[in-house]
Amino acid sequence: MPLDIVVGTQWGDEGKGRITDLLASEVDIVARFSGGDNAGHTVTIGDEIFKLHLIPSGIVHSRPECLIGNGAVVNPQILWAEIENLQERGVEAGPQRLKLSRHAHLITPAHVALDIAREENRGGEAIGTTLRGIGPAYTDKTSREGLRATLLDQPEELAEAVKDHVRQKNEVLRALYGQEGLDPEAVAEGYVNYARRLGRYLVESSIYLHTALQKNRRILAEGAQGTLLDLDHGTYPFVTSSYPTAGGALVGLGVGPGVVRHVIGVAKAFTTRVGSGPFPTELHDEQAGRLRGTGDNPWDEYGTTTGRARRVGWLDAVILRHAVRVNGLTELALTKLDVLSGWDEIDVCVAYELDGERIDFFPSDQQMLERVRPVYRRLPGWIQDITGARRLADLPLQARHYIDFVAEASGTPVTIVSVGPAREQVIWDR
Ligand code: IMP
After folding, report:
1. Is residue 13 among the annotated active site residues?
2. What is the per-residue pLDDT across 108-160, written as a single tens digit (0 to 9) for each?
3. What is the pLDDT of residues 311-334, one digit of tens each?
């Protein structure tokens, strides 16, 4: 009864969509288990680029069914737009293939308005959220005031629930943020319209997955965001409001640990982050510009969801070891190795220095984390273009050495290496 989990090891944007796409040809179901349209997963097939926010990346394959699990938060407007866009491009995304958990929570325009208002109010202390209403929707879930997707096939109840919800949020928007608030009737009407279209997609997701596992169907749990954005294991408070780690996959899908086979951690060959918060190996100036790219290519380091320039830095093996531990990673997929071509030397952070002492773990205390200094190991770079490599033996010695070093420093085998954005630009060593 195999279930494999793909998670991000860093601050998101590691290329999970890409790796999911790669593995999707071998599975029957691809399931998202956390987050919402704050995620941006890019899959490149030939000349076509698919940017997905909510629907699992497996949808662009003809084979697997796709599930948005109970741990996700769903903005119906975004979901419907994504479904329509896929269908227009000839990708089957009807209820036969795509399923939405009845237990997933709905994001409303009031959540989005609150997210924006809170961020504005934080001023210089802003988290740098994606402004998609993610935090407020999960806050309502945990305070037991949320709207579950199951309401999508009960339009009358949904309309009343949405109106109540908007009225309550309006009180907050007015009292705390001096805003006018939203029109409850108009928001409810919009949601009833989405319900007519999306009600057909609802499933009892835990039962759906359990039945599939009993029939020996293979499932891939597709993570969003990354380990360091996890509410508990990330750089709190500069995190998202869900659990993008492997434990979150179990809760977010309603399956037990016994079914898990592989936990694949996706790591970019360097590190990136969007939004605020500590980043020990962050680079600036010319070096940063080189890693980030100009933005002319869709795979340069600019946010898929927000378009923001990502912060960039060297690979941090302390972070990778943290990710290996909290996720129980069985292997690593190293992405974007080609971006490191052309550097004379490449640094990898192997430990931190904290107040004059060397530490080899990722501190959870934010103030400690602000004070750490990276301890680097300098490795020889390579000048060759590696985008045509399809086997490890095709790579220059220095690039192979880099991969071996990542495996050794993280204590985890590297089984997949991507050397370009296209589907076939990959080296498998599984
Ligand atoms: P939120 O998830 O919109 O609340 O944003 C919280 C933090 O997580 C911010 O720093 C965002 O930039 C970051 N974040 C959320 N989703 C992603 C993602 O898919 N990739 C990278 N960063 C993300």
Report:
1. yes
2. 999 999 999 999 999 999 999 999 999 999 999 999 999 999 999 999 999 99
3. 999 999 999 999 999 999 999 999
- Catalytic-role residue among 4, 13, 37, 140: 13
Ligand 1 mean position to 45 CA, how many Å? 26
Tell me if 241 CB under 6 Å of ligand 1. Answer: yes
Query: 232 an active-site residue?
Result: no
Q: Report the alpha-carbon distance of residue 57 to residue 223 in Å, rounded.
A: 10
Q: Which CATH number fits domain 105-200: 1.20.810.10, 2.30.22.10, 1.10.300.10, 1.20.1440.230?
A: 1.10.300.10
Judge whether 267 and 226 are in contact, CB under 8 Å.
no
Torsional class of 46: left (φ above 0), alpha (ψ -120 to 50), beta (otherwise): left
Which residues lie across from 418 on neighbouring strands?
Answer: 426
Ligand 1 atom closest to the CA of 13, numbered from 1: 20
pTM (whole model) above 0.70? yes
Fold of 3-95+204-428: Adenylosuccinate Synthetase; Chain A, domain 3 (3.90.170)
